Amino acid sequence: MPLVDDQTGQVHEQVLDNGLRVLVQEVRTAPLASVWCWYRVGSKNEGPGLTGVSHWVEHMNFKGTTNIPRDKVKGIIEQFGGYWNGYTWIDQTTYTETATRDVLDRMLFIEAERMANCLYDPADCESERTVIISELQGGENDPDQLLDQELTATAFRAHPYGHPTIGWLGDLQTMTRDDLYSYYRRYYVPNNAALVIVGDVDRDDVMRRVVQHFGAIQPRDIVKVSPTREPEQLGERRVTVSRQGTTAYLKVGYHAPSIQDADFFPLLVLDAVLTGAKGVNLWASFRTPAPQRSARLYRALVDGGFASAVNGALVPTNEPFLYTISVTATEGTSLSVVEETTLAQLDAVRRHGITEQELQKAKNQLRARLVFEGDCISNIAHQLGYFETIASWRLVPSLAARVDAVTLQQVGEAAAARLKSTNRTLGWFDPQPSTDEEAPHAGEGAGAGPATEQRR
Amino acid sequence: MTTLEQRGLAPVRSLLDNGVRVIAKHSGATPAVTIHATFDAGTVFDPTSEPGVAHFVSRTIDRGTASHTADDIAERLDFRGVSLAITVNRHALSLICTCLVKDLDPILATLADIVMHPAFPDREVETRRGEIVTMIRQDEDNPAAMAAEGLLSLLYGAVHPYGRRPRGTVEIVERISRSSMQAFHTARFAPDSLSLVIVGDLDPKRGIESADRAFASWRSAAAARPTFPAIEPPRERRMRVIAMMNKAQADIAYGFTAITRSDPAFYAYWLMNNILGEYSIGGRLGDSIRERQGMAYYVFSALDANVVAGPLLIRAGVNPANVDRALASIDEEIARMAADGPTDRELAESRQFLIGSLPRRLETNAGIANFLQMVEFFDLGMDYDLRVPDLLARVTRDDVQAAAQAVLDPSRAAVVVAGPYSGS
Q1: Contact B291, A131 (CB under 8 A)
Q2: What percent of chain A has pLDDT over 90?
Q3: Which listed residue, of A363, A439, B161, B383, carries a Cα 20 to 30 Å from B153's Cα?
Q4: How confident is the model at residue B423 (pLDDT cuts 50, 70, 90)?
Q5: What Å distances lie between residue A194 and A1, A37, B92, B236, CA to CA?
Q6: Residues 196-235 of A with CB under 8 A from B
Q7: Domain limits of chain A?
């Protein structure tokens, strides 16, 4: 039955006959098990009229199945002390449960049901429409998120990475139950999924249970349309959001390498030098601030008194996405001064590269982050599945070595190639004073940041 | 041999000669260690005339000491990949970081220098002042922050420390001086107000020895014990609208003053709050407002049983057209909880959840450190993790209903709506 039975280091990989890739890692630090079921579908796969469908489908997949009645969903894992969640982003959709190892079977049952038997009751689809619009409008209340969405949409003209994962409001208002259901049926098949189990478990026992729950689910061919390749940018782009507000924000976005491109890790090092190392775990690292007090942009902007915060974001993705620098201007500082100061630093590093000492510090930071972001089974499991949806889980054990191998010259070349003005989009949130006449706006839709979660 | 579950966390607690409390715990998940240093120096200790000093101190204390510049400190931490988070809440100011085990001693030495000898250099004070003013202005444009602050002010009044804005106002922050911060440091930072938790891949004995080396030389007068004004229970419903017409969504904050952490009824309140607004997606409130009516992406309740009777807060983000309907649903759910109490099944499931989720809460170094600080702060005993199941098992359905009846009454609720809403 197993097509592959491969073992590299601590991760056991097996592909079922129906194409489901299963990854198991035994970690016995706590009496817990974490299950993640990943699908290679995200907002990148959405066409016109259906923006936001991946995320809405994710919400619908928590609303009962053939064998889990709607009123049995609440507490299905919580009554065992467990936790569940899910998120959708540009390349992937994922669902997770973490609970005591004793309920592993139940967690696998839930994920098998989710893959094959979700209900899509029309009334639930309607009720969820307004929940998602509320999620969108909550995001829109945050000027930083609004600017992020506008910047991304400006940087991409053709590639679907340009539209927000939560979708455009117009599509959320018009999509139908059948749109949702057919999208679900199309992408939720075992040959488009990766199931990851990490924790205090026995791998043979896990595999027996996985086969029992998932073995009979039929595969189906998926015709995946390759997204339009983004044409090369020909010159600097700008976008300004003029809204009532109290604080000014600047964002600078550069087209960035995908995880497979040679300069991804050099650019990751460069980001650590500019804004402090974040690591590469979307689920863990972005929740703790970067060590950035001595980073170049922090020194110039925050210590210089021009900004109250600066952050860089380079996230591993399947296709080239963006390297984004976000700056919050201090009260009384004009955006043009913030922009000038930011660009002066970026131009300096583009022309002269970084120093040997900065390289060493960036590597120390990234190595430490890689240790910190593997501090629990859910974070370990997340990384295996996440990398499997953008390239291969096999990158995970090699991350530290890839960081170590980065040279001064590579960082210099990456800076020179990527930080050109012709590769850049500048975004301003230019706050307008409040006016009494202004009517409440109807809302145009806002992105929800790097990932949108099902719950908080 | 005993299993982990039977043994519990079993941390080692030690009192240094100068009064510093050190709690150390081995955890071998990663070759890392979390340091969590907490001082009795929260916003309740702000001078009445200058709310915001504790927060200002938290943004400035690590920006230079008598012997090291801010740049030196930044370089020491950054070079080891350490980001130092300094947080401040009502009662405590905490310095929290995670480092590799091999870096424990140099990082502890840096932390000790920061808390014992901060210099508050003028240039740093001015830069941080600009940051804080910007943060306050951001809060003023954030309906969620405005609703929460507005509610605490309604519940506790402008004088009680729980009712004040934790970051102060722009006007006050503009005039907080370096000497105010030095005075706050002198009054609140002392060995006996420090509780230091060290959790990671090392022998607890070694952790305590390292702490002793870093802090043993510190001598400073004991921090004064605080007293707090009495809280007036509300007699009527109060509602406030903060109109923010530039926003897309309205944030609701709805609440009551509840109980202290040391009240024996705490465990009944804990369960009651879980059933009302936490369990699964936001408990009964989530069932009604999110799942059945599709009105909100988020709705939940949170109980902050504290040194004084902290708040029970209900929060929701809704379309402005749905504010009145959401408020009516909250009224209905809390009245129903007070009138009928929970079902047996709800009580059993929430109890199982709170007990069963402990191993997850205690999985990471940071999670354990946080838990141990809470245990130490409320004096719950180092075996508290083992006693939780029994404490929750003793709570009956009547106890939970009594808790609901004592606090959940729509006619005495405080309500704040912030966002594109001008009132019903």
Answers
A1: no
A2: 90
A3: A439
A4: confident
A5: 17, 6, 44, 56
A6: none
A7: 5-219, 237-432
Q: What is the strand order of the sheet A452-453 is part of?
A: A5-8, A11-15, A21-26, A193-199, A32-39, A93-100, A83-88, A452-453
Task: Give residues 298 to 327 of A whose Cβ lies within 8 Å of B.
Answer: 302-303, 305, 308-309
pLDDT in tens, A338-382: 999 999 999 999 999 999 999 999 999 999 999 999 999 999 999
The single residue listed with the structure tokens 């030196």 is B72
Q: Is residue B10 classed as helix, strand or coil in its secondary structure?
A: coil
Q: Count the Cβ atoms, other than its own, within 10 Å of residue A178.
A: 11
Return the closest-CA partner of residue A271 out of A309, A319, A326, A232. A326
Fold matches, A5-219 and A237-432: yes
- Spatial contact of A347 and A296, defined as CB atoms under 8 Å apart: no
In contact, B128 and B206? CB cutoff 8 Å: no
- Provide the 3-class DSSP secondary structure of residue A2: coil
Predicted local distance difference test score (pLDDT) of residue A112: 98
**Alpha helices (H) in B323-418, listed in sequence order:** 323-340, 344-356, 358-361, 365-377, 384-393, 397-407
Domain ranges of chain B: 11-215, 238-419
CA distance, residue B287 to nearest chain A CA (Å): 9
- Residue A228: count of CB within 10 angstroms of its CB: 11
Secondary structure (DSSP) of A155-218: H-SSSGGGS-TT--HHHHHH--HHHHHHHHHHH-SGGGEEEEEEES--HHHHHHHHHHHHTTSP
Residue A423 CA, distance from chain mean position: 22
Task: Tell me which fold the domain B11-215 belongs to.
Answer: Cytochrome Bc1 Complex; Chain A, domain 1 (3.30.830)
Q: Is the pLDDT of residue A307 over 60?
A: yes
Q: Smallest CA–CA separation between B173 and chain A, in Å?
A: 13
Taking residues B8-18, what's their average pLDDT? 96
Cβ–Cβ contact A85 with B under 8 A: no
Q: Which of A201-210, A283-292, A333-342, A383-392 has the lowest mean pLDDT?
A: A283-292
Count CB neighbours of B406 within 10 A.
16
A225 pLDDT band, cuts 50/70/90, is confident
pLDDT score at B29:
85
Please state which architecture CATH assigns to domain A237-432.
2-Layer Sandwich (3.30)
Q: Two tokens at B414?
A: 């405080």
pLDDT in tens, A277-288: 999 999 987 667
CB-based contact B71 A294, cutoff 8 Å: yes
Residue B234 pLDDT > 90? no
Say whether pLDDT at A43 is over 80: yes
Instruction: Give yes or no on whether B11-215 and B238-419 have one common fold.
Output: yes
Residues in chain A within 8 Å Cβ distance of B130: 305, 308, 330-332
The answer to whether the beta carbons of residues A154 and A237 sit under 8 Å apart is yes
Question: Which pLDDT belongs to residue B424?
Answer: 67
List pLDDT tens digits, range B321-358: 999 999 999 999 999 999 999 999 999 999 999 999 99
Residue A196 forms beta bridges with which residues?
A23, A36
* Count of C-beta atoms within a 10 Å radius of residue A440: 17
Q: State both tokens at A287.
A: 């929740």
Which superfamily is assigned to A5-219 in CATH? Metalloenzyme, LuxS/M16 peptidase-like (3.30.830.10)
pLDDT tier, B7 (very low <50, low <70, confident <90, very high otherwise): confident
**pLDDT value, residue B230:** 85
Q: Across the interface, do A127 and B298 touch by the CB < 8 Å criterion? A: no
Helix (H) or strand (E) holding B29: none
- The average confidence (pLDDT) of chain B is 95
Whether A38 and A389 have beta carbons less than 8 Å apart is answered as yes
Complex ipTM, two decimals? 0.93
* CATH class as words, domain B238-419: alpha beta
